[in-house]
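Before going further, learn to read the protein records used in this course. A complete example follows; check for yourself that the lines match position by position.
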Amino acid sequence: MMRTKASVALAAMLLGVAALPGRADDQPVAVQIVDAMNQVFGSHPGFRANHAKGVVVEGSFTASANAASLSRAVLFDGSAIPVTVRFSDATGLPEIPDGAAEANPHGMAIKFHLPDASETDMVLNALKFFPVATAAEFRDLFLAVAASPPDAPKPTPIEQFVASHPAVPAALATVATPESFATDNYFGVNAFVLINQAGDRQAVRYQVIPDQIAHLDAAAAAKRAPDFLMSELPARLQAGPVTFHLRAQLAAEGDPTGDATKAWPAEREVVELGVITLDQAVADSATAERSLLFLPGQVTDGIEPSDDPLIELRDAAYAESFARRGS
């Protein structure tokens, strides 16, 4: 079934997930999502079904004094914690031009290597909030795209879905192509709960903010080399380290933690959790990417998932994609 360029772009921007050709009721939604990615973008052995194109770098994270008051997690004790970070383009296309509109939102996944050899992850996107709130809405969105070929009567199912789900265009309006992966801001659209030594609990959403934010307009992005983001970051690191500030936006009473489409008010307090310093690109990024699995719900003591159902869904979809990566 042929789809309009606009509807494919919409699906691609929604974290690179494209239209389901139909759904098998006996399959988990996460499996249906990965099936859809593989059908639309092709199956590319060794690559992720989504955010297929990326680059891996390394560095460390050092927490601020404020962090320990919010969480007893070891990564917030002030010591230097090694990190592996993967930046990526959206879609399941390994050769997508970095400046293409469909490559938004770009991603940043962080793996913290803890002193006991365990790991905890954060998975963020350059998207301030999520377009849909539940697995069922994912499914309905994809089915709407599938039912909207070029000759579909107006309004098409995807047009009707977008009209009835205002978070979709609102979320997509928050993305833009960066001049560099080092000049974009990244947001954890899912809420997590930080727990301190006293047992106090605080719901937060993570933010990773660069020292300088710089984006390109669509025309300028389209003129850049196809791999400009992937090549620029390693070159930048050869000249010196890149730093980001890890921050936590604190929820107030009544702020929703189970709906990723609902941004918290801008006036909510934002606390500095520490500094991420990236100092080198991995020598063989392509090989490193194959063995890396980042799971939003993989957390350590002192951090818990909130009641957001998308955390579990993302874990399941990423694990399914990882299982297929070498096949």
User: Anything to note?
Assistant: The radius of gyration is 19 Å. The chain has one domain: 5-325.
